[in-house]
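Retro notes (design track)

What went well: tokenization of the new backbones is finally stable.
What didn't: we kept losing track of which sequence belonged to which structure.
Fix going forward: every design gets posted as structure first, then sequence, in one message. First example under the new rule, 77 residues:
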């Protein structure tokens, strides 16, 4: 169980939860998400960061960018 949800409820590779957390399908916490002051852009701030790293206007592209970032981060020793 991750973040109060059964893993079967984490349907997508990247899940944007209602408490503004970003969690993988496996329940790994990656950081937080929100929208900018205009509510036009989704923003992702990785765990431990103070500023958003990824932003996009489309949720699907936003989630894919987070997935790509996570895959690259996992490859770094």
């Amino acid at each position: 169980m991750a973040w109060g949800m059964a893993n079967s409820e984490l349907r997508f590779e990247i899940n944007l939860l209602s408490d503004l957390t970003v969690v993988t399908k496996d329940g790994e916490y990656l950081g937080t998400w929100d929208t900018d002051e205009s509510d036009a852009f989704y923003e992702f701030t990785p765990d431990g960061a103070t500023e958003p790293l990824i932003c996009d206007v489309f949720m699907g592209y936003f989630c894919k960018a987070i997935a790509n970032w996570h895959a690259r981060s996992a490859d770094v020793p």
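Added context from the reviewer: Residues 31-77 form one domain.
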